[in-house]
Amino acid sequence: MKNNAIYLKVTKDMFWVQMVWAFGVFGVMLIIQIGKLILGANQGDAPDNFYSSFFIVANFFTFIIGIISISFLPHYVGNGVTRKDYFKGASLASIGLAIILPIIALVISVLTQFILQNVASMTFKEPNFDSFGSDSNLIGDIIQFLILTPYVNPENNVILALGIFSLNILMYYLAGWLIGAAFYRFHTIIGLGFILLAIVILTFENVLVRNTLNLPVLENYSFIELPVNIAVPVIFLLVILLIWLIRSLTKNVTIKM
Length: 257
Fold this sequence. Notes:
The protein is an all-alpha fold. It is built from eight helices and no strands. The chain has one domain (3-251).
C-alpha cells in the first residue's frame, strides 16, 4: 500500500469507529429527550431542543474519545503503521468528527422540533449558556467555563453556530488526546501537568471566542481581551499548538505492547 494511502485508511478507520460511538450517544440522548418530552408535556414545562442538549454533552464525549484515541497508536504501530501516519490519520478523523457531529445534531433537532411542533403543538425553551454564577472562586469559574462553552443559536446564524460548535468539539478532542498522549508517554506527575496545560488552553480559547462574539465573560477573566483581528488568529494558533504538542509527544514514543 502506498504511504499516502496508509494515513487515509487510518483516518477512515478511526473516524467510523468513533462515529459508531457517537451514534450510541445520539441514541441514548434521543431516549432521554423522549423522556423529557413526556415529563414536560405532563408538567407543562418546555424542554430543551436536541441541539442545545447535545451541545454540552458533545464536549465531554469528544474529550473522552480524545483520551481514548491514544490507544489506537500501539494497535497501528503493531500492524506496521508509522507514528506519523497514525498522527495524520487521527488528526483528520478528529476534524471530520468536529464537522459532522454538529450537523447531525442540528438535523435531528430540526426534525424533532418540526414533528412535535406540528403534531403535538409543543414548544421548546430558549437555551441559555451565558448565565454564569456570581461565585468569584477561581476553581468554580474554571469549571463553569469548561462546561458552558461559547454558544451561538443556529436560528440566528446557522453557519457561525455550526462553526463555533465544531471549534468547541475539536478543542476538547485535542485536549483529551494531549492528556492521553502525555500519560501514555510520561508518568503520573507530568501527566497531571498536561491536564493543567489543557485546562489553561481551553479556558484561554473560551475567553477569546467569547470576546470575539461579544458574549459574557466571567469577571476573573475580564483582563484577557484582544482585538478581533488578533484574537481570531490566536484562537487558531491554540489549535495548532495542541496539534504540535500531540505530535511531539507521539513522534518518538516507546510503544507499550
